[in-house]
Design goal:
415 residues, alpha/beta, UDP-n-acetylglucosamine1-carboxyvinyl-transferase, Chain, 12 helices, 32% helix, globular, 3-phosphoshikimate 1-carboxyvinyltransferase, aromatic amino acid biosynthesis, amino-acid biosynthesis, EPSP_synthase_CS, transferase
Length: 415
């Protein structure tokens, strides 16, 4: 579905209240934990919270020889470990883009633990066939040479308590998105697992999950980042996000300090998160955003809006997300009239203020990537009407996004 997104600043409200979706990162981890405990049906109420959650919960609830996870990289990685533990022969398939995202290192780790895994099409890439389950004794997995995703570690951590000897996972010197590993550990501890980490390795002892009667699922800080982007663009608007947790287990709560550099102030009033751009944005920023890759897109577009030049490092792994997000950012920014520069050698994205001619109505191809669609849809409030190709991709993480932006003063014309 394509859409033309525009914004009417004259009629837009100056105070916007947004009910964010629950965190799909938390739901997907709980889904594996509850499935291992035979209670996954208790999470069915969260299936509609995001496309990712729906895919995961359906995959865990049905007994199919072929499981299609669409474009959900999380489901692919977590289910590889889950089905290897269960010893259930299954083929995990996905979208064309998902089949371009590597899983070889995770497959090697599971093979080390005794699983037999095949790649029917392209070695090291989905689809993935689980032929034989792993040995349930557990053991050690060494990722010391590096991994492209923290989800490999989280995937193994989630099944580790069920193994007789637990598991020790050796981490590489640089682990992308490490806060997500920490979130997995904290969530597992809440569910009764014995998990420890010193930053160089993760150890999980054999134990049984002890589940709460009703799981507490926070609102999604990653989704909040789009409203931080909007707040940075509009100094006359206050955004209220009632459902966020101030003391959160989500790494993307770092959005508070990140957007503080662009002048967005975060206050907690009666338990509600309130955003307002009350300070001047920085003129230039040098940042490493390796730990928070999902914040890069809204932050970059907000920087363009506030004329904040930047150099952002540690983001090579953005090239193997739902889209090549570096290419998506460069192409989208050019449609807005800005020239971004990418150094593949250093993994650095920068903007020095350079501009280019922009079309009368910019066209941004989301490439099926929910975050690309959302960041550029919001950009229309500053840069004028935009055509977004693949606007429906937002359902992957934020099904209510289009309704929410309409409340904030946007109009979306479906093409």
């Amino acid at each position: 579905m394509d859409a033309v997104v525009s914004f009417d600043s004259a009629s837009a409200p100056r105070r916007v209240i947004v009910r964010l979706p629950v965190s799909k990162s938390i739901i997907n981890r709980l889904a594996i934990i509850y499935a291992l405990s035979g209670r996954v049906d208790e999470l069915e109420c969260y299936a509609a919270s995001s496309g990712d959650a729906d895919v995961m919960l359906k995959a865990l609830s049905r007994r199919s020889e072929v499981v299609d996870v669409g474009d959900s990289g999380t489901a692919m990685r977590f289910l590889m470990s889950y089905f290897s533990y269960m010893g259930r022969p299954v083929t995990l398939a996905g979208s064309r883009r998902l089949c371009q995202r590597p899983v070889a290192d995770l497959a090697d780790a599971l093979t080390t633990l005794g699983a037999e895994i095949e790649f029917p099409c392209d070695d090291g890439y989905p689809p993935v066939r689980i032929v034989k389950g792993l040995r349930r004794c557990g053991g050690e997995v060494d990722f010391g040479k590096g991994i492209p995703s923290s989800q490999y570690v989280s995937s193994l951590m989630l099944i580790a308590p069920m193994l007789d000897e637990g598991m020790r996972i050796i981490l590489p010197d640089i682990t992308p998105s490490y806060p997500y590993i920490d979130m997995t550990a904290r969530l597992m501890r809440r569910c009764g697992a014995d998990v420890s980490s010193d930053g160089r390795s993760v150890s999980v002892l054999h134990s049984s999950y002890c589940l709460p009667e009703s799981p507490k699922v926070e609102a999604d800080w990653s989704a909040a980042s789009f409203w931080y982007e909007f707040a940075a663009m509009h100094r006359d608007v206050t955004i209220v996000l009632p459902d966020l947790a101030e003391q959160s287990i989500q790494g993307d709560a770092a959005v508070v300090s990140l957007f503080g550099a662009l002048g967005v102030e975060t206050r907690w009033i009666d338990g509600q998160c309130v955003l307002h751009a009350s300070c001047a944005a920085a003129n230039h920023l040098d940042l490493c955003l390796e730990d928070v890759p999902d914040l890069v897109l809204p932050f970059v577009v907000a920087c363009l809006s506030t004329a904040t030049t930047f150099e952002i490092s540690g983001i090579k792994h953005l090239r193997i997300k739902e889209s090549d997000r570096i290419a998506s950012l460069i192409d989208g920014a050019s449609q807005l009239g800005f020239v971004l520069k990418w150094s593949g050698q250093s993994g650095t994205l920068s903007w020095d203020g350079s501009q280019c001619k922009r079309p009368r109505i910019p066209v941004v191809d989301a490439r099926g990537d929910h975050r690309v669609a959302m960041v550029f849809a919001l950009a229309s409030s500053t840069f004028g009407p935009l055509k977004i190709i693949g606007m429906d991709s937002v359902n992957k993480s934020y099904p209510g996004f289009m309704s929410d932006i309409n409340i904030a003063g946007f109009s979306t014309g479906i093409l």
